[in-house]
Design brief:
The protein is an alpha+beta fold. The protein has three helices and eight strands.
Amino acid sequence: MPAQLRSPRSVLRTFVRSAPVARLRQAGGPIRAEDYVEDGVYVIRADLPGVDPLRDIDVTVHKGILEIKAIRRDLLKSRRRAEISYGLFRRVMTLPAGADGDSLTTRYDSGVLEVAIALPGARPPTPIRR
């Protein structure tokens, strides 16, 4: 007797619920951010508590798109309750027209990453110490 065929939707649902894929789906998530313009500089502030800024944050600009990636590492293996998200966090934002990606500066303080990019006609932002 031939095996019973399952619908493609049923197969996909089973795959998504499988342990490794389910863990990937639950890991990390989007980065909460806000942006504004001040004195000709476009500023993005991203909420990234609990990460090592030198090791775990990557900021890139390519063709007018800014990408922020961060990893929050799970160093504690045994716990009674888990409400903190770990894993890869990512945010992609379109920069304003003419923003100079080469002028990008960053600062990380108290769990907040601040990215500054000069806009046309503005003097480049002053490098910020980490």
